[in-house]
Amino acid sequence: MTAQRQLHLGAILEGVGTDQHSWRDPDLAGDASIDIDWYIRNAQLAEEAKFDLVFIVDSPFITPDTAPHFLNRLEPLTLLSAVATQTRRIGLVGTLTTSYWEPYNVARQFGSLDHISRGRAGWNVVTTGLEGAAQNYGREEHFLHADRYERAHEFVDVVRGLWDSYEDDAFPRDKAAGLFLDKAKQHRLDHKGKHFSVAGPLALTRSRQGQPVIFQAGDSSEGRDLGAAIADGTFAASQDIEAGRRYYADLKSRAAALGRHPDHIVVMPGLFPVIADTDEEAQAIARSQQEALDIGKLLVQLGRAFNYHDFRQYDLDAPFPDLSGVTLNSYKGHAERIIADARENRLTLREAATRHGQWRSGFVGSPETIADEIERWFVNRAADGFNLRVTRPAEFALFRERVVPILQKRGLFRTDYTADTLRGHLGLPVPLHRHAPHPAEAPHDLVEAAE
User: Fold this and answer.
1) Residue 185: C-alpha distances to residues 56, 171, 273 (Å)
2) Which end of the chain has less neighbouring CB within 10 Å, N or C?
3) Using an 8 Å Cβ cutoff, are 400 and 47 in contact?
4) pLDDT tens digits, residue range 313-339?
């Protein structure tokens, strides 16, 4: 099984951290989240370790209690364009919302990044969970959850249509004949839908990988439906291997039901390992990190899934509060998991905050133990790969220098790149141009091989 599949690794570059504690690491610069040199250097380190991609998180709303990295950070497309000029092979994935942008702008921006990077761009499609974002974009109320996903599906369809504005041989650039463009190979989109009306064409050709890779991270039923329909990869949030296997099987079965090849969606859960020379040392580090947590900050992080609901108003040691009057028009899938877990296990608020108000790692141990667990998830189809959280320098170094070589020795992970594009790294096909002749027998997402 492992000989036929390739483990994939991504690096989530989080600067000073999307938790409330990593920023205090003495080896981490306090301005890492706005220091382009920090991103470039860590992208280069990930590239030296042969990672598939680096990933930049984003959201359009903050509060004074928001995690340090979110409070002060660079915009993803600008950041990744700079990183593209200082790297050669690693994929570059950025988050951008479909709720508060326009398809034409997004098609142009990610298409440009794809050209700048020579086919290494990826777009993490999000619908924006935080209701406060609405007032940053001239709206009094946030889009309803179901409407966000309906809008997102149409949004991606429009963007992909714009990326196909030119056939691959549309520009003869024949100086002798004075022919720059073959006009028959430029195509207007003329889309008129429920949410968008876009004429096109986009003033940009396709890149070496055809179109940027689409990622998606929604975990509600609507989110999984969207991922199954539009995603080349998903950033899963599975807490343990059994949850991972359920998510993996569910997502790929939804994709197959839509006529897609299930292997054309790469499932990559988040990875937050605690690594030391021995399992005992790693477990001691994990305990000390747990003991150092500030319950007030955990309550803030817990509240983010509920549109920053203020959990500090409740008794910490009473049962998890009744949230029937609280809107779930935010990170719905995550919020529903928290409520269900609290009910099923009769958690107090303190216990729920400790469990869900931080990044919890099920990967604690020596490099060998971490590699064993990664392999277990991969072989048992709970994941096709992982996205490693990168903030504390020593933790990243341990993973690159101690864990990756074990995975390589076992034949699970590449020792060198065999492709130059993000699609190539992920083993994904290049989408056929919608205006080119299509093989009649091919599923709609099964096309020519990636570079």
Assistant:
1) 35, 8, 50
2) N
3) no
4) 998 899 998 887 776 666 777 788 889
